[in-house]
## 1
Amino acid sequence: SIKAFIFDLDGVIVDTAIYHYQAWRRLANELGFDISEEFNEQLKGVSRMESLDIILAHGGLTLPDEKKAELAAQKNQWYLELVSRMTSEDILPGVANFFSQVRKANLLTALGSVSKNAPLILERIGMTEAFYAIIDGTKITKGKPDPEVFTKGAAELEVAPAECVVFEDAVAGVEAGKRGGMFVVGLGSPEVLTQADFVAPSLNALTVDEVLERFSK
Ligand code: G6P
Ligand code: MG
């Protein structure tokens, strides 16, 4: 039976996906090219340095490591400027209600994000206490689509992967959850999140009971 829910952060709990995109787009523009929203789908859930590599390849640029470190730090600085203004008002619609149902159902909760800024964002929105375990980009060696971030979460909660449901908005994140042996609810478009067990537009469109029913055998 299902014992735990593991949540991605960006695009699931808060809409920081848009801030990542804005900061990356600003960087690409400074380098002389542009990135579209459609292109951005492949960056979701992908680590900072891997995202930069994908963007540079898109712009046809090859740069030395020191320059890349500089660009990644610049992007992060712009990103932090955007997220520093966040408050609990920025929690996505339906999240607070969904979490109160999660508590009533006595489910365990973990955060599984490859973002190194995840703890900072949880503090800003006042949701640090909503998670029994927090796995972020500082605790993993491999980003999504590698399952490490989710399997570490399950291990900290002391539950088996098959007892976990992952909530993800990213193609790479859905793949990570499936590779980890977990049930995966995709949040977004079914045409994009094709590997998910099922897809809903957002947590606002779901109830905990509905999710549990889907995965109870
Ligand atoms: C999340 C986001 C990605 C981001 C990654 C690293 O997975 O979906 O867009 O690149 O975290 O975030 P960081 O805050 O460490 O740069
Ligand atoms: Mg995400």
## 2
Amino acid sequence: PGLATYDPGFLNTASTRSAVTFIDGEKGILEYRGYPIEQLAEDSTFLEVAYLLIHGELPTQEQYEQWVHEITYHTFVHENVKDFMHGFRYDAHPMGMLMASVGALSTFYPESRNISDQDNRHIQIVRMIAKMPTLGAWSFRHAQGKPYVYPDNDLSYTENFLSMLFKMSEVKYDPDPRLAKALDVLFILHADHEQNASTNAVRSVGSTQVDPYSSVAAGVGALFGPLHGGANEAVLRMLRRIGSVDKIPEFIEGVKNGDERLMGFGHRVYKNYDPRAKIIKQQAMNVFEVTGTNPLLDIALELEKIALEDEYFVKRKLYPNVDFYSGLIYEALQFPPEMFTVLFAIGRTPGWLAQWQELVTDKEQKIARPKQIYTGDRTLEFVHREKRW
Ligand code: CMC
């Protein structure tokens, strides 16, 4: 009591114990519940990873089928949520719509405030994982002035999402399985990343014991910020500006002179190749096989090659991060830039919920209430405005 450590952004303060995600930034290791991200991306599915994050262990076949069934069953949202979304301006940003509509779900499920009941927590977690793609897809359709597409529960999680985004007629949407798989892998890669800004927001709001929809809405808000969810869009803008492979040396010189940063490079935690970036690069190749290549890919590949050999980047341990190739994939999948962060939010939802559940079941946790170092005036004498003016 009485003692405070000044630690802006909590760079040196652990706010929690957690058994969800392990990162070793020096070695470039990322594990969910102890399983390396490379193995999960290769052999698992997003819903299996979601189960793992939430339950702490891999499902049996029966548990997996039940989990997928429950999530598929809950993909529809109340019709009034649709009306609510219709009320947004024609040019509303999809992230603003997503944040508001997730928060609005708390009013449709008031029992979600009973967070001490495990069955109740379970059903809210299932609902949220199930409904995020529906809300995300509808926010996209809204921005395009197109009618909302209801979930197709014959399709897989990611196929259904693609259907709600891109279906243009009464005919059943038939997504390319390779594109659905790429999106599934991207969701896996984004599913958790320990105490990042949005997870910290979810935990901070959740520590007040509010319902999980309000907590996750706070996470979506944090993710909306350009320092958190917006770098992949900046990578695309940078590649476009460079324009051609022969302009790369000139661009790199500018970066080294401090004119600008090489977007999609460097990371606060990873001082090695971001393990997610390797997997994304491979997925980008798979996607371009289907969609045809993008000239920006050649620029990205050459940029990466040059930077990895350049002393400036080597000395500072700057490697490609998760955002270096993801924007290229999203663009190839026909997503406009403002949807990139919505995709991130859908992928991150199981992580937010796993961390929220860990928080509310942890007896050691307290309401998040950091200390401050007060720098203002003290004990001034108030003078009534009639005497001041
Ligand atoms: N291009 C050029 N120089 C860089 C870059 C870059 N992308 N990143 C860091 N540096 C330099 C920086 O100028 C500094 O050099 P010096 O020591 O000479 O002053 C040194 O490297 C250390 O930089 P820092 O800003 O102290 O490092 P940080 O850990 O605070 O920043 C970062 C991490 C991600 C903000 C930064 O690397 C960056 O701005 N990268 C570009 C933006 C980007 O790709 N962001 C996405 C991050 S991954 C998203 C996620 O995981 O959610």
